[in-house]
Amino acid sequence: MIGVAMIVGFSFQGTELIGIAAGESENPEKNIPRAVRQVFWRILLFYVFAILIISLIIPYTDPSLLRNDVKDISVSPFTLVFQHAGLLSAAAIMNAVILTAVLSAGNSGMYASTRMLYTPACDGKAPRIFSKLSRGGVPRNALYATTVIAALCFLTSMFGNQTVYLWLLNTSGMTGFIAWLGIAISHYRFRRGYVLQGNDINNLPYRSGFFPLGPIFAFVLCLIITLGQNYEAFLKDTIDWGGVAATYIGIPLFLVIWFGYKLAKGTRFVRYSEMTFPDRFKR
């Protein structure tokens, strides 16, 4: 069940792009809250509701669905719905729609990765070469680097019986949950520090509901999914260490990079009293 939650979470990853886009929005105080609400309802309608309909039509025993003994899947459940209904032409159209969605997801990933490489470069936390902009304001060097890495990751699916590709996929899903853990911690500490410095929470242009339960619940849930996604491997008589490594490789990779940076740069945690906020949002 927890392993399935990792796959579901991987499908949802990308919703945090709203925060990245805020830096390039013309009116973030107005547009970002509206985008947050729209993303929630769109996910509920186009993802959750669609999956509910599919689960009512396609039995879990359908041989075309992904099972534990199958490492690859060539038919989308969305396409299977139309195939079961005998609408083959509609199934072909759905494949085209899915391909369009995949291209859109790839475009969003390129945008986010480029900006997340560009911003640390501007702050001196990444090579300066990635901070250079084109005449149109595009961080081209960061975009080129992201494109090369993305292409190499894509090519790994063609070699080694997809073993390397599965490792990269697990790492991507794991780091996505680690990012959500960081977002939950950052949100909690931001709100706490803002209030402890005597500021009125109503001065913020957008306030997430259910605080502090929201970030606490998100942190605990993501932590359970991150640590328990392959707990079944430890319950067997013989532990498949290769499978365990493929599942959890993202955790040691993150810790090595994080602690390595802290040791190299001598950074420390920022206390609540040391946090800084824009003057227009104070008091």
UniProtKB/TrEMBL annotation:
It is a multi-pass membrane protein. This is Amino acid permease/ SLC12A domain-containing protein. It is found in: Membrane. It comes from the Bacteria. Residues 2-270 form the Amino acid permease/ SLC12A domain. Keywords: Amino-acid transport, Membrane, Transmembrane, Transmembrane helix, Transport. One of its GO terms (molecular function) is amino acid transmembrane transporter activity. The keyword Transmembrane applies. The lineage of its organism: Bacteria, Pseudomonadati, Pseudomonadota, Gammaproteobacteria, Enterobacterales. GO terms for cellular component: membrane. The keyword Cytoplasm does not apply. Coiled coil: none annotated. The chain crosses the membrane at residues 39-61, 81-106, 142-159, 165-188, 209-229, 241-261. InterPro entries: AA-permease/SLC12A_dom (IPR004841), APC_YAT (IPR050524).
